[in-house]
Design brief:
Blueprint: H1 3-15, H2 19-33, H3 37-41, E1 44-47, H4 58-66, E2 70-77, E3 80-86, E4 91-93, E5 99-101, E6 104-106, E7 112-115, E8 119-121, E9 126-127, H5 133-138, E10 144-148, E11 154-155, E12 169-171
Parallel strand pairs: 1-2, 1-7, 7-10, 8-11, 10-12
Antiparallel strand pairs: 2-3, 3-6, 4-5, 8-9
Length: about 180
């Protein structure tokens, strides 16, 4: 099956999840994520605000804040992502409908990046939304890259492009790859 066909199928399946399914599956993913030993040891996190039935990142963000972690969010500027640390609690919708900090400073020492994805495979290849923002952002960074996915988003054998950046971990409701 062509990757764009698979993207469409997975996107539709994700959009068809009920609010309660998203909530329950996201809670399972959050619990699995926090079993990773290094999460408690790292300080600087870069994480997206979820949209359109993506794994809900808000409870993860709240938990990281409770644990006194520094959080930055992606802000799209041109073709690039900027790791923005909010100066206030004001957020606005960016180019893709994702909430971005309105006033921010830039996080320099990122340790962990939570990466959005549409689909992935057991070899930790990731397919995003096709614009390459995260691949460009991660290309020169030595960080831990974690994808959050529902189990149906893990598919067999993605053929990555040479510029695609592999994840270090994929966390689903039932497993950690």
């Amino acid at each position: 099956m062509l990757i764009n066909d698979l993207r469409k199928i997975i996107k539709e399946k994700r959009l068809n999840l009920s609010k309660i399914e998203v909530e329950n599956l996201s809670k399972m993913i959050e619990n699995n994520l926090f079993t990773l030993d290094f999460i408690s040891k790292k300080t600087n996190f870069f994480i997206y605000n979820s949209i359109k039935n993506e794994v809900d990142t808000l409870p993860i963000i709240k938990r990281l804040k409770t644990e006194k972690k520094a959080i930055s969010y992606p802000v799209v500027i041109g073709e690039n992502l900027i790791p923005a640390i909010p100066k206030t609690n004001e957020f606005e919708r960016g180019n893709f409908g994702v909430l971005e900090p309105k006033n921010y400073s830039i996080m320099r020492d990122i340790e962990v990046v939570i990466v959005p994805l549409l689909l992935c495979d057991a070899q930790k290849n990731r397919v995003g939304y096709g614009k390459g923002y995260y691949d460009r952002f991660l290309a020169d960074k030595n960080v831990i890259k974690i994808g959050l996915a529902y189990d149906f988003q893990v598919v067999d054998g993605i053929n990555p492009n040479p510029w695609d950046i592999k994840l270090d971990y994929i966390v689903t409701p039932t497993k950690i790859i």
